[in-house]
Write a structure and sequence with these properties.
- The chain folds into two domains: about 60 residues, no CATH class; about 200 residues.
- By secondary structure, it is an alpha+beta fold.
- It binds zinc ion (ZN).
- Zinc ion (ZN) binds next to loops.
- The site of zinc ion has 8 residues, from loops.
């Protein structure tokens, strides 16, 4: 802690903040809360996936300690959507199978669905699956959806921070119409072991691996706060948009266990 308050040019503050986050023990998270409160640097820790509750006593990691790589495996073209949705982690579902009519108008693309009962370390949830989806939008966006106990999105609200590029939007619209049947498959959760290729802090150089479930968020975009209770949302997964080609960049899913909210979010490549 003393080092955090007395940093010098050789050891910038952010490095010591990263170290505190990497240690992650209850003592480190208590130090994090004390330091963040006294220096007003809460946002730095929120960007790393830590929530600072109002009582200021201990920071809370809003991600699982354990993570798995997500490997894509195509399915037979003859598989119907009704058969595809029965798989634990399907890719490429029709929107009508993941959202009720009211929310469907905001959603144009399905990247993946995860069976949350197979993801260790999540908070207790009233729903058992979550869907990473996209709106018809080309800039930075976060799509907040209310999810039912039947795992269907019932309401959707889009938050955007950039203007649309009309040409890109026209291309995306054409893709939405012409490629709804493309890129169907399922995901397998792989352990972080010596079968993966680790490079530049990610596992995506491994054949057919497009991202991870679990672990901290990338921090390339501002991590979303729940639109209902305001708490930093819990990071579920992050994949490259090339998993099921639509838009460009990373796509992440976040949860709020108290308010039945799932956020899908876009980030640029870096
Ligand atoms: Zn909430």
């Amino acid at each position: 802690m003393r080092r955090l308050y007395h940093t010098d040019q050789d050891c910038p503050t952010y490095l010591l903040e990263y170290m505190l986050a990497a240690i992650g023990t209850p003592a480190a998270r208590a130090a994090m809360a004390e330091y963040a409160t006294s220096t007003h640097r809460q946002k730095n820790f929120m960007d790393l996936g830590f929530w600072l509750p109002a009582d200021g006593k201990i920071a809370e990691a809003r991600f699982t300690q354990h993570r798995s790589a997500l490997r894509f495996q195509p399915v037979a073209d003859t598989l119907t959507p009704e058969e595809l949705i029965k798989l634990p982690h399907p890719v490429g579902l029709p929107i009508s199978l993941v959202a009720e009519e009211k929310a469907q108008t905001m959603i144009s693309w399905h990247y993946l669905t995860l069976d949350l009962t197979q993801v260790a370390g999540l908070p207790t949830l009233a729903f058992s699956r979550a869907h990473l989806v996209s709106p018809l939008h080309t800039g930075s966006w976060t799509l907040f959806c209310t999810i039912s106990e039947q795992n269907l999105y019932t309401q959707a609200k889009l938050s955007t921070s950039e203007d649309e590029d009309p040409e890109q939007l026209a291309l995306l619209r054409a893709q939405t119409i012409n490629y709804q049947d493309a890129g169907k498959g399922e995901l397998r959760l792989l352990p972080y072991d010596d079968q993966l290729v680790y490079r530049n802090g990610h596992t995506q150089s491994t054949a057919h691996v497009y991202g991870d479930v679990g672990g901290p968020p990338l921090g390339l975009s501002e991590n979303p706060s729940c639109p209902i209770c305001g708490k930093l949302m819990f990071h579920l997964c992050t994949i490259a948009s090339t998993l099921r080609e639509y838009g460009a960049g990373f796509r992440s899913a976040f949860l709020c266990e108290d308010c039945q909210q799932v956020a899908s979010q876009s980030s640029g490549w870096n």
